[in-house]
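User: what does the whole thing look like in 3D?
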Amino acid sequence: MGLTNQPPDLLPGTLDLLILRTLVAGPLHGYGIAERLKILSQDVLQVGESSLYPALQRLLLNGWVKGEWGASENNRRARYYTLTAAGRKRLGAERAEFERLVFAIQRVLEMA
Amino acid sequence: MLKLLRRAAFWMHSRRHADDLAAELEHHRAEGQSALEAGGVSPADAAALSRRAMGNVALAREDARGVWIAPAFDALRRDVTYGVRGLRRDPGFAIVAIVTLALGVATTTTVFSVADSELWRPLPFPAGDRLVVISSRGPGVNGAYDYVSGADVLDWRAMAHGFDDIGAVGRTDRRVMRTGTSESVRVTSVTATVFSIMGWPVLAGRLPERGDEPGGQTAVIGERVWRRLFSGDPAIAGRTVTVDGQPITIVGVVKTVDGLGYDADFFEVIDPSSPEFRNRNGLAATSVIGRLRAGIDMTAARSDLQAIASRIADEYPDGRTGHTIEVQRLADYYALFNPRPLYFFLGASAVLLLLACTNVANLLLARALNRRREFAIRGALGGGLGTLVRQLIVEGAVLAAPACTLGLLLTAWALALVRTRFPPGYVQRGTQIPLDGRVALFAIAVTAATAIVFGFVPVLFARRVDLNVTLGDGGRTAGRAPGHRRLRDALLTAQIALTLMLLFGAGLFLRSYLLLTHVPLGFETGRRIVVNLVVSGPRYTGEAQWLAYARDAVARIRAVPGVAEAAAASSAPLESGPLIHFVVPDRPRPPAGDEPRGLLRTMEPDYFRTLGIRIVRGRAFTLADAAGSPRVAMVNETLARTIFPGEDPVGRTIEITPRTRAAWADRPGRLTIVGVLADIKQVDVHEIAFNEVSLPFAQRPSPLITVIARVNVDPGAIVPAARAAAAAADPSLPVRRVVPLESMVSSSLAGARFNLLLITSFASVALLMACVGVYGSMSRAVGERRREFGVRVALGASRRSIVSAAFAQACRTAASGVAAGLFGVFVIARVLGNALYLVAGKHGGLLYGVGMTDPLVVGLAGSILLVVAIAATAVPARAAARVDPLITLRAE
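Assistant: Here's the predicted 3D structure for the full assembly of 1004 residues, as structure tokens:
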């Protein structure tokens, strides 16, 4: 089993939030999303395809992202994911919720 | 919602999605490889490394797919496959269970569909519940229904507020229509308003309009005669036919409803302005129908009409003083005379369904017990209870689905049979019974629930059992857990009890049918034929012509080789006749309407000898009792006994009262009784004897003529010759019917025979189910005690004692089942009371001459069931006797 298949434990639902966030800047393909998460988190978040692709399918099903086939920078056929309006709204909501949660956890860690 | 659509879209393009996902994952790997190459790794190593980095691609794909398809779906498909496979492995079980459930569904659905269309379904007319029949009854406790004059109908129509419209239906006559051949058709005169009230669909032509009425020369015909005599000609409107010598123009064809009266061949339109119709004392309407205005209460409409009728009666005092108006819904008016058989068979079919469910429950239970080891292993391997229950529910459904399909197919077939094979008069709307959707749903729900609930409930027991024990002894002792045994025995007992009840019912019907076939009829039936004739038309205007025709017909029939004797009458035995009211003039008159009644029949002197009817006292009619001579009568024994108790009726006088306005039967006047004849069955084989007044045919000829002939040959063989002879009397008149008298007796019993057939088939199916149930249950019980038997044999028990041990168990269960069934029979007998008889304990709608707890039938049903139960145990018991102690003990 490859190392990349053992992502650090994420809070439930956070992967969706992170994927949505990476797409704000513009359309990305699956590999691009994984790379972006890895770079931005300074190698802490290494999302394996076994959780990335189901998550992407889930987002597709919910209508938060759209998938379109295009050519990648290496000239390969790749599916590019774009944030939809519904996805943008969802991102806002989830982000607010996440921040509330993190804040709460921090409060507990500091004050308890 | 949108999500559901997306899911659906995914389902439609699942292939493309899979390809997309594969391509995407490959792209992911390729990008990874490129990244590695860019970092200086050789292409071959990079490919391998990137592949390894990908981990479990198949799982990733499965998970990604799982997002779209709830994994439950896949599991469901797996369960269905598994269930089907399981049934295929055990075809005996599958076939028995499916057929049993299907039979249960089919009988219940069929009987309910019939009952529903007869008892509860509204009339198939637009707003059929607003159609009413208005009747006028004479004074007295049981005031006779009276004709309504056309003038009254017109006044009601003009003055009553509660009705959209009111119409008059006149008498129905048999007349002769000539279209190349002579056809006897039933002609009913109706006012034009009747068509709009009934709302019959028009199949061709149009309905009568205002201008059509004068002269009464237009008619609308019914669908049946249109198809039969005019081969459904769509351009029939305007065609003129000759009916009783009069030209009548057909303007249209209507589709009437069977079994609701009003289904004549010809509807002749009444001219409401004719003096005959307007006659205040006329007999224009035998029945008056109306359509209530929407929202009008029936009782309010009735009291309104009553007030109007009373005002009219005050104004015309010699008319219908003291009459009461009755308003009844058309559906109620024509409701089945005796709905009890339907309720009874509804109950019987419900018992059968219950029995089917019990049977299948028992089978499923046994099967679940056999699979106990499988369940235990699954449990030991970590299989969840939820998964197991879900799988068993699916297995139940797999069983129920074909059972329901088969059941509904059987129902459709049975209903097709019922529509064509019901004896006439058994049900009113027999030809139009639809398969009832609601009851089909109900029956399906019940069977599905049985299959499903009894499929998984035993597992809940099974799970409680210690896995070690079950697995440790190879599941051999599993069935001996007392809980299961008790449940299984209870089901078997219930099954035997229910079967006994149906068997007992069948026994009652059989006994009462046998009694019916031996009822003394009062006349000879063998070697007699009945020829029904009717005269009408311009050449037969009065009694003299009717009499002449009847005598000619009798002479011609008597001349047919093989005919020994023949005589004319107004009707044959079992053919009924008009009812008259009579009084004894030298006694105080009962209040109007409460006079005794009797059935009127007229006959030639030879009638009694021809039919072998006994003359008890006095004399039979003679040729001297002719038109001009003193008027005489004969009465039957019942009348003699009830009206002249302890007196000799011969020589006494009775007077037919003029108040029944029937056409030819009501000639009032005094008659001298000259003789008493034995009671005969007048309407039906299982009738209760009632008054009969007989008159000489010559003193009161009727246009309905029935010739009865005694023959020396096979009566069936002489029918064509008799028909030809009768037709020769006047080729322009139709011969209505020529039949052996025996077949009339037989058709009088058709209803009873049909009831017997129904209940017997129910009982046979029940008995078969019980057989299968007992056999299955007993073989399982013996199988479970195999080891015990083995040990016993090893310890020196004889084979005989083993067999008797097995039998003892069967007998215990059978006996308790029979006892429970008998208890059920007595409870039901108590609850039903005399509901199955018209006259308590004697006559009936359903039963005749047999008690509800007839000891012979009880004993017979009980012993048949015991014998069958024990016979069904024989095979398993022999298996028990053949147990080889070495083999069983080695298995320890």
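In plain terms: The beta strands of chain A are 28-29, 65-71, 77-83. Chain A is about 55% helix and 15% strand.
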